[in-house]
Amino acid sequence: MPATGDLPMLSVKEHPDTAEVTLDVTLARLAIAFALVAFGLPLVRAALL
To answer: What global pTM score does this model have?
Structure first.
């Protein structure tokens, strides 16, 4: 197995799309969380009443 220093390291500078993908994934997770809260809370409240 090669030493860690021999492995090519990917950086945002070499691959600018990496930052965009990370941002897209983060925004998607936030959107999913918001949707769960926005639609889940009324359902839970309706079930408890």
So the answer is: 0.55
